[in-house]
Design goal:
483 residues, alpha/beta, Aminopeptidase, binds ligand BES, binds manganese (II) ion, binds zinc ion
Length: 483
Amino acid sequence: MDRLGDIYPSLKVCTVTSSNSPIAKSLTFAATDAEAIPLHVIESDALDGWLETQPDRTAAWVRAAGFTGALGSTLLVPGADGNIALALAGYGNDEARRRGRFHLAACAGALPQGTYALKGLDPARATEEALGWLLGGYSFDRYASQRPANARLVAPEGVDAARLEIIAAGEALTRDLINTPAGDMGPTDLEAACGALAAEHGAAMEVIRGEALLTQNFPMIHAVGRAAADGPRLIDMTWGDTGPALTLVGKGVCFDTGGLNLKPGASMGLMKKDMGGAATVLGLAHMIMALGLRLRLRVLIPAVENAVSGNAFRPGDILTARNGKTVEINNTDAEGRLVLADALALGAEATPDLMVSMATLTGAARVAVGPDLAPYYADDSALVGALEEAAAQVADPVWRLPFHDPYEVMIEPGIADLDNAPKGGFAGSITAALFLRRFAGDAKYMHFDIYGWNPTAAPARPKGGVGMGARALLEALPRMLAL
Ligand code: BES
Ligand code: MN
Ligand code: ZN
């Protein structure tokens, strides 16, 4: 069990030894290859100028084919022997590119199998496009026959290829974990995935399971998860022994039925993805550990299934959280903030330099910003600045929502300290974030209310599970923590 890729397809078996590694092998660059087909990236306005530098027959072919450099278009140019001499990828203009990201990943799918070498991009753009190319090679094939292999790319010059491969592997891990249905990704399986990741990187892992959650004071994780056949647990992974302390907390609700406040069928269909926060922090943890960042990392994942049974927690119950605060349960479907609260309280006890939670926490966040943006909360303007700049740099868009203090009153009910589901439903994502902040103690705190799912295929982002905010955070960490 020492390669990330070994987690799949054998997640249930925690003692994988083979080097059969679909993740690590598939999302990589091709070795430098003199025979690689040159792939010229051409903006619409630059086409005429480029054609003037080419032999007449090439220019004639390109014009005859009607290639205009439109974003997403491709053209193969044959040589005299009929083989592919070069390929063109249209790169449109700024205005067209602003409407998306990872544009060349779309071309990668349109080109015939083979090895290509990018020409004509500066290192910053080449970095985004090369990562997109790798991510576009992702497919979830645990239950289906393998897709034909993608066209491959030689790592462009000036690009940190090893870093991009690590980032792609982390993202692939996130996607695999989310895409795996709850029947094969219950709390036990999520724990096994964490164990495999910890083993790969020499991280330590402790898990508190079942009744021990009560004796060790994680009452809300226990209450939410106790009705499930696969019992609740808190996974606590630590890595690194020097540098600032970073604690990542991920919502690991392996399936969210809503509990006794049962979700209607249409709302329950996608709830295998309710461990998307856990999946995203694990992908980020892989990136941090594989890159060897000089920090002390802790990953806390409350892993539960919000199920229905005779022993399920009920509307009206009052739970006492780890930090002593009492919580009136007004909706058992607002379970994520409960399990996260106990995990955050534990994290806060060590006062790390930064604590970040990621969770598919509210439908309100999805309604507010849709599936393309990662909404996040932070009080510290230095953190905000670092994150926003990094997000733009690595094409991982985020959008700040406010920890709006005047709404604190909304999460304060009559007979307990906190209400897990304020009536009226105003500002649902904000009130959930305010709830979590009550458990973060004195740590600097950021929270992401992500969707974790891409509903329509886009370049580099196939339909299905997707990481959000992790790459932006990775890029921002050196500034956030003065690494
Ligand atoms: N996991 C859901 C949130 C969710 C739903 C995220 C759909 C993405 C898509 C969460 O546990 C939940 O059910 N939240 C409720 C809270 C409400 C009952 C206060 C919601 O958002 O409706
Ligand atoms: Mn819920
Ligand atoms: Zn949930």
